[in-house]
Specification:
single chain; mainly alpha; Monooxygenase; 2 strands
Length: 105
């Protein structure tokens, strides 16, 4: 049985809904790892931040924080997981970019 909303019991979920929910969890976890090539390039290949926009990644970080707060408020686990992971990735990118690009400091 699903949770209740305003005293009503929600209908049981279909197999399609369950499959979609599983897919959302996979996407929530895998999505943030798409930043790994950028992290790898900054920290291990070029050890530079040439071509990395501080403003863009800082705004990504702000948006992830907003979505994380929304997920916490709504108790939406995929939103929380995804945006917490995104924040970690964005911080790693910004710290690396700041470390290797003195004009940002």
């Amino acid at each position: 049985m699903r949770s209740t909303t305003a005293g009503r019991t929600a209908a049981p979920r279909s197999e399609r809904e369950i499959a979609l929910e599983r897919l959302i969890y996979v996407a929530a976890i895998i999505g943030p790892f798409t930043a790994l090539p950028q992290i790898y390039a900054i920290w291990f290949v070029d050890t530079s931040a040439v071509g990395v926009s501080f403003t863009t990644w800082a705004l990504f970080m702000v948006m992830s924080a907003v979505w994380l707060a929304y997920g916490v408020e709504r108790r939406d686990t995929p939103t929380i997981v995804s945006n917490a992971l995104w924040l970690v990735m964005e911080v790693i990118i910004l710290v690396g970019a700041a470390r290797f690009n003195s004009r940002w400091l």
